[in-house]
Design goal:
By secondary structure, the protein is α+β, with helices and mostly antiparallel strands. The protein folds into two domains: 71 residues, 3-Layer(aba) Sandwich (Glutaredoxin), CATH 3.40.30; 131 residues, Up-down Bundle (Glutathione S-transferase Yfyf (Class Pi), Chain A, domain 2), CATH 1.20.1050. Helix content is 50%, strand content 8%. The chain has a four-stranded mixed beta sheet, covered by helices on one side. Pfam families: GST_C, GST_N_2. This is Glutathione S-transferase.
Length: 216
């Protein structure tokens, strides 16, 4: 069954999917679309117009975490726990990353020092939760890689792009959170799943918002 991933070049949710596909070495085609001017064929096949969308033959799957679960079904050894309760916990750890991504994107849009500092305080609250989990396990759920870990890849890709433009270490006080990012981006084919020129494209997009952190 052919796989076609409809994507947007700097979408963090697309990066989750491409990281998993590349890590598992699953063949797929990728089509980038203009999110402000989506093509008619895409809208017709996918009325909700969500990106990423995975076309499996003529079937459509949306939502990055759902797509990850489908990808997991294609590999010989599942990266999800067998126990239903543990599987649900794994999924909840993946969902937690959505909030972290939201806070980070908010930081990149903060136009004042106050808004930036408030966002940073909120991010540290999330990092504190992650640090406590990661003191117990190497990965987000256990000492072995699981499906939930792919949900966190874009967090570190974004922060890696931002770090040269920050005058402080955003991971200060959170060594386990920092090490986790190094581990994730060091996984085979994961760190190279970003599109060409990702950092520059991301920063150019952020600059249009005139964020505080780029003005100091």
């Amino acid at each position: 069954m052919s796989l076609t991933l409809v994507s947007y070049n700097i979408s963090p949710f697309v990066l989750r999917v491409t990281s998993a596909l590349n890590y598992f070495q699953i063949p797929y085609q990728q089509k980038d679309v203009d999110v402000m001017n989506k093509p008619e064929w895409f809208i017709k096949a996918n009325p909700l117009e969500k990106i990423p969308t995975l076309f499996v033959g003529d079937k459509v799957i949306q939502e990055s975490l759902v797509i990850l679960e489908y990808i997991n079904s294609l590999v010989p050894n599942s990266l999800l726990p067998n126990d239903p309760l543990e599987k649900a916990i794994n999924r909840s750890r993946a969902e937690f990353s959505n909030d972290v991504i939201g806070v980070i994107l908010g930081l990149t849009a903060a136009s004042t020092e106050e808004a930036f500092n408030n966002g940073l305080t909120e991010l540290k609250w999330y990092f504190d939760k992650l640090e406590n989990w990661l003191k117990q396990t190497k990965f987000i759920y256990s000492d072995e890689l699981t499906l939930a870990d792919f949900a966190y890849v874009p967090i570190y890709a974004i922060l890696q792009a931002l770090s040269p433009h920050l005058k402080f270490n955003i991971f200060e006080g959170f060594p386990k959170v920092q090490q986790y990012g190094t581990t994730l981006l060091g996984l085979p084919r994961v760190g190279t799943s970003k599109p060409e020129g990702y950092e520059q494209i991301l920063l150019e997009r952020i600059k249009t918002r005139k964020p505080y952190f780029l003005s100091v």
